[in-house]
Amino acid sequence: MPEDLTIAVITNSYLSALSKSIEFAEEHWGITFKLCVYSTKIRSQLKIKNRFLDHFTLIPDKPDDITYKKIKNDLLTKQLKFCLLFYTRLIPECIFKTVKVINFHPSLLPRHPGLRGYEEAIIDKQLGFTAHYVDKSVDLGMILRQFKIEPFPIQSPKELKKTSSFLCSVIILSILSDLPKIIPTKLQKFTNVFDCLDTVLIKRSG
Q1: Structural domains of the chain ordered from first start
Q2: Distance between CA 38 and CA 40 in Å, rounded?
């Protein structure tokens, strides 16, 4: 029987990259992933398969302290240890002091933090993704993984977004591979995901 791993997710964006990542992980690692999702989007907008959703809570576009306190208490009740963040708002201390919160940022930190980080990175001819722990700063928590595509691909804005989305899937997989219950011998198949980018060089750090 596959192992189970339940992870919290706080999001105000679509989750197609996460969905692709956990599908790959389930197929290659024998792990059954379950997600407890707290989202400003209704369930049908998430672009993630229902079989991954163990729990869903709709939260306001502008959550208040009461909302975050409810999320905190829920995380404690469910005894969850990890929370993945696909979110354009700052998370209060009550959340990242309760669980390890990992943010996924569409640029190479610390050079391009904040909401316009992706746009500024594209202007600088850089395409990358960073996963980092959330703290009181704005996108300056401890970096866990960084992936950069070199050379910068000559693509349309639409194609760049698709490549960036794929890069996000790759870095999510890298983070998932570090979570408990992942059997080390299964990680040899992790590199298969990089075969899809055979026309570019991905530089990795961390």
Answers
A1: 3-205 (3.40.50.170)
A2: 7
